[in-house]
UniProtKB/TrEMBL annotation:
One of its GO terms (biological process) is coenzyme A biosynthetic process. Residues 8-77 form the Flavoprotein domain. InterPro entries: Flavin_trans-like (IPR036551), Flavoprotein (IPR003382). SUPFAM superfamilies: Homo-oligomeric flavin-containing Cys decarboxylases, HFCD. GO terms for molecular function: FMN binding; phosphopantothenoylcysteine decarboxylase activity. This is Flavoprotein. It comes from the Bacteria. The lineage of its organism: Bacteria, Pseudomonadati, Pseudomonadota, Gammaproteobacteria, Enterobacterales. Gene3D superfamilies: Flavin prenyltransferase-like (3.40.50.1950). The gene is SBOV38231_2. Pfam families: Flavoprotein (PF02441).
Amino acid sequence: MANDLVSTICLATPAPVAVLPAMNQQMYRAAATQHNLEVLASRGLFIWGPDSGSQACGDVGPGRMLDPLVIVDKAAAHFAAVKRFATS
């Protein structure tokens, strides 16, 4: 069940969905977060990131959002692979 527009779209679409986790390193390392990411991956969603480094809260560690250019590169590579598959 979805309770917001983004979740509803993700549940309704047949298109590939990528999730880009970004949060404090303690939240990212939490067992519940890791479990939920594993569940999403097992359902075919792509998990891109997170990166490690300085965070807004002052912590350093995993959970930082991927650099926007890295996100663009990952999306371009993904769709290029899909296009190659579709045309072969």
